[in-house]
Design brief:
Elements lengths: L2 H7 L4 E5 L6 H7 L8 E8 L2 E8 L2 E3 L1 H8 L4 E3 L2 H7 L19 E4 L7 E5 L5 E6 H8 L2 E3 L2 E3 L1 H6 L14
Parallel strand pairs: 3-6, 6-9
Antiparallel strand pairs: 1-8, 2-3, 2-5, 4-10, 7-8
């Protein structure tokens, strides 16, 4: 069953938009002219041998350590490409929808995404998106809500090669 067939079978209220191909959640936000906070980015994680579909805003990154603590798991890692292909056989790689129940995966949603009234996500294709109210999404996906992300901007700050406020007159 495709995503759109599933949404129709569940009598969901949603709309679909077609756009140029996008390959990241940030690109989706740009092409749809919305904030990255409104884009639901699915990230598949394997923790203690079980797969989980984590859903977070495009402007945040997954904190594997926080997720591992949330799941009370001994280890956690991102799913690899081969595992993704076997889990999501009816979607293009990288265009997975954030609905774990469609693929028999537990869905975990970061609480930062819960603030929005609507969300947008890829519909199994890099050229098609689904717009849906957050209320409809929560009813459909029944996600476990937790806190396991951090702002993507932190990575930019951390990767700076020097402290811009430090002045070394000797160039040491």
């Amino acid at each position: 069953m495709t995503l759109l067939e599933y949404l129709n079978a569940q009598h969901c209220d949603y709309k679909v938009t077609e756009h140029k191909p996008v390959y990241t959640a940030d690109q989706l936000a740009t092409v749809e002219h919305i904030s990255g906070r409104e884009v639901a980015k699915p990230v598949v994680v394997r923790a203690d041998g079980n797969f989980y579909l984590c859903v977070l805003p495009a402007d945040r990154k997954l904190d594997l350590y926080a997720l591992q603590k949330h799941l009370k798991a001994k280890n956690a890692r991102l799913a690899n490409e081969h595992e993704m292909e076997s889990l999501f056989v009816d979607t293009e790689l990288g265009a997975e929808p954030p609905l774990g129940n469609l693929y028999n995966l537990p869905t975990l949603m970061d609480k930062s995404l819960n603030k929005d009234k609507q969300i947008v996500f890829l519909a199994g294709s890099h050229e098609r998106s689904v717009w849906m109210s957050m209320k409809e999404y929560r009813k459909l996906a029944n996600p476990v809500i937790g806190s396991f992300t951090y702002p993507a901007a932190f990575d930019e700050i951390e990767s700076m090669p020097f402290d811009p406020f430090f002045y070394d007159p000797y160039g040491l």
